[in-house]
Amino acid sequence: MKFRNFPMVPRVLFGRNSFDQVGELLMPLRRNSEAPYIFLVDDVFQDRPEVTSRIPVMFEDRIIFISADEEPKTAQVDALVAMIKTAFDEMPSGVIGIGGGTVMDLAKAVSLLLTNPGSAQDYQGWDLVKNKAVYHVGIPSISGTGAEVSRTTVLTGPEKKLGINSDFTPFDQVVLDPAMTGGVPKDQWFFTGMDCFIHCVESLEGYFLNTFSQSYGEKAYELCCEVFTSDELGLEERQNKLMMASWHGGMSIAYSQVGIAHALSYGLSYELGIRHGVGNCMVFDHLEKYYPKGVRKFKEMKDRHEIVLPSGVCSDLTTEQMDSMTRVALSLEPLWENALGADWKQKITEKEIHELYQKM
Ligand code: NAD
Ligand code: ZN
C-alpha cells in the first residue's frame, strides 16, 4: 500500500481579534514596496468600516471586493489574474482572502494562477499544478467549509465543477479570528455549519475512514452537535467552537473523502447554481437510507433552528438537465467509492439518482 504524503497549513493564528495581527504577519514577507499584497475581500464587508479600516494596506496594496452571490468560476479567476498582472509590474508579495469558502477558494486559485500559465480550468483535477503559488493567506469570516485547511479550491468551469487539488493549494498562513464571523445571517450560519457536519458524517461513515480522519471527524462532529443543539453556549463560545469544528472537519476529509451528499450537491450547483451549503442540506435531508443516524441528527438541528429548506427545485427540470446533474454527480468517483465501497457501480443507478433529485 502506498500512503499519500499530504501538506498541511504550516502556520495558523487563533484568537478573537487576531485579525489585528495580520499587518505584523505580512510585513516581513513583503518583497518590496512595488510588490503589493492583494486583499480579496467578501463585499459584505464593503459597508463595515470596523473591518475594512483594519485591513493593513500599504504602498501599492490593493483591496478587491468580491461578491459571494455566485460560487467561484474559472473565468473569474482568469480575469482577476489578468487584471493583477496588468496593474502591477511586480509579482504580488501575496494574496489574502477574507471571506467564506467562496473568497478563500478564489484567493487560493488566484495565487496559483499567478505563477502557473494558462487558465484555471487547465488545473481542475488532481495534481496538475507544476509551480508553487504566490504566498497566500486565508482569513475565514464564516465557519464550516474547511476551505481554510483543505488542499483544494473548488471552481466551476465550462465543463465541470471540480477542485484544483494540489500540494501547492493550501494556504501558507491562516488567521482564525472567530470575531470575524459576527453578522452572518442565521440561515447561512446553519447551511455553512451543516457543510461541516456533513463532512464529518460522510468521512466517519465512509469506506476510506482511518484513525487520522476519525480522530478529527469525531471532534468536529461533537463540536457541531454542541453548537447546534446546546442552550448552554454563549455567542462567543459558539463562534469559537464552530470555527474549530470547521478546521477539524476539513482535516478529517483531507485523509478520507466526502460522500453522496456532496456528489449530488455538486450536480445541483453545476446545473442550477444552488450554493454548496444549502445544496448539501437539501440533499442530505433525503439520504436517510445511506446515513440514518446523521440524517436524524440533521433533522433535529434543522427543526430546532426553524430552518426551511427550498423545495420543488427539480420538479420542472428537462430530461437533459436531470441527465447533466446526474453526469456531474457520477463523475465524482472517489466520493461514491468512499460512500458505497469499491463495487459502488453495482450499488447505485442513474434511476435512483433521478429519484433522489426529484424529491428536492
Ligand atoms: P460563501 O463564502 O459563499 O458565503 C455565503 C454568504 O455569507 C455570502 O453571502 C457571504 O457574503 C456571507 N458572509 C460571509 N461572511 C460573512 C460575515 N462575517 N457576515 C455576514 N455575511 C457573511 O459561503 P461558504 O459556505 O463559506 O462557502 C461556500 C463555497 O465554499 C462554495 O463555493 C464551495 O464550493 C466552497 N467550498 C470549498 C471547500 C474547499 O475545501 N476548498 C470546501 C467546502 C466548500
Ligand atoms: Zn462541503
UniProtKB/TrEMBL annotation:
UniProt keyword list: Oxidoreductase
Listed GO MF terms: alcohol dehydrogenase (NAD+) activity; metal ion binding
First and last residue of the signal peptide: none
Name of this protein: Iron-containing alcohol dehydrogenase
Domain Fe-containing alcohol dehydrogenase-like C-terminal: 192-303
Entry superkingdom: Bacteria
Chain ranges of the Alcohol dehydrogenase iron-type/glycerol dehydrogenase GldA domain: 11-178
Coiled-coil residue spans: none
